[in-house]
Backbone:
């Protein structure tokens, strides 16, 4: 069983839900990203999603697009982020997942990426622009290297598509709670609970809800039906405005309230 699988099994046994936080790797620096990983783990985060910066992030809203641009301007590369994962693995066992568009991975080389990801201690990969019908080769390579290839499930997905995604995904399903791009929303998407319950007919792995979860109250509400919640844009924006706040202070101020909302403290 993968590190992600073990984490969800432990959470299920304790009847708790996963708190997953998205960080754009290298924003504001790789050093700060590493410090944040340790701080987030200390404040109740169960899994961390590291966004690989890309010049044309079509699924992302303005907040994450801006973070990606800042990271690229600092010279952040996929190879450098893998080295970051290897450093983290010397100190922490928290599951780490890359969120990367297909181009950076293909540019690096699928086989090489799978091999280096395994060596670094990476646990999973989300590729938002890779549909399951085109992901067989990537899935084979990731499985060979013990990396969970995680697919996104949209609220508009047909039953047949949900079935395909349920068969192909490993680790967990990333349920996109609303249509459109990432970003903050004032309320949860309508019918989110009904749709997540419906998706369980096709998915044997945990289902985690993301896109638009911006407040602790929204996280608590989404966790009524999801096995975990993913918080991204709200925290990426807070980080961009936090100035000289230390990683520990940032986490306590902005992240711990989400953990508290999920009953972790």
Residues:
């Amino acid at each position: 069983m993968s590190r992600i699988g073990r984490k969800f099994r432990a959470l299920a046994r304790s009847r708790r839900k996963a708190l997953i936080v998205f960080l754009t790797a290298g924003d504001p620096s790789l050093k700060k990203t590493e410090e944040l990983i340790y701080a987030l783990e200390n404040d109740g985060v169960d899994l961390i999603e590291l966004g690989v910066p890309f010049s044309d992030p079509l699924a992302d809203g303005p907040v994450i697009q801006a973070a990606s641009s800042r990271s690229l301007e600092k010279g952040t590369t996929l190879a450098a982020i893998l080295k970051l994962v290897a450093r983290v693995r010397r100190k922490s066992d928290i599951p780490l997942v890359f969120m990367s568009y297909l181009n950076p991975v293909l540019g690096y080389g699928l086989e090489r990426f799978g091999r280096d990801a395994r060596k670094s201690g990476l646990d999973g990969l989300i590729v938002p622009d890779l549909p399951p019908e085109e992901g067989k080769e990537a899935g084979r390579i990731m499985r060979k290297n013990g990396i969970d290839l995680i697919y996104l499930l949209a609220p508009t997905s047909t039953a047949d598509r949900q079935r395909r995604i349920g068969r192909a995904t490993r680790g967990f399903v990333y349920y996109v709670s609303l249509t459109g791009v990432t970003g903050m929303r004032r309320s949860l998407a309508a019918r989110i609970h009904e749709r997540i319950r419906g998706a369980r007919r096709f998915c044997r792995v945990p289902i985690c809800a993301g896109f638009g979860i911006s407040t602790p109250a929204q996280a608590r509400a989404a966790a009524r039906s999801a096995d975990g919640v993913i918080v991204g844009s709200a925290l990426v924006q807070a980080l961009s405005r936090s100035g000289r706040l230390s990683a520990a202070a940032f986490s306590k101020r902005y992240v711990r309230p989400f953990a508290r909302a999920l009953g972790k403290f």
